[in-house]
Amino acid sequence: MKQQDQMALLAETLRQLDDSARWLHRSIRRCQRAAAKRELSPADFDAFESLTSRYARTSDMILQKLFRCLDAVELEDRGTLLDVLHRAEKRGLITSADAFREIRELRNEITHEYATENLRPLFDSTLEHAPALLEIIRRARQYARRYLAGPEPAADSD
Looking at the domain that runs over 3-144, which CATH code has it been given? Predict the structure, then answer.
């Protein structure tokens, strides 16, 4: 793929992540209010289901699209998943490969959770880890400025 095409793909990936971040941020705010409740209502469960889905989708986009897209722009070999995470760490996008591994493990737990009872620990953990995804997107946008010209996205207004 040509370098110009790689840049266009990076810009599109960041645009998609900005959209994902807006929805994730909205879910975080809704669930923070619900998390304070002793008992969750059906509407609260729906809100947490949205949060966990958005968390899983956003973490997938970060790992499978963003990190690999930056690798392609910087002409890095694909390598293993661990290689991808170490390069993201070197770029300052994540605090550590181990920290992102926790994000990934939670994503896997969400994706493979079939229980219908006692989901509160899963919901609480997602709510705790979700802001890290927003921070990764913020750092990635800042990092990608060296390759892309243009304005920053508008602040979230909800």
Answer: 1.20.120
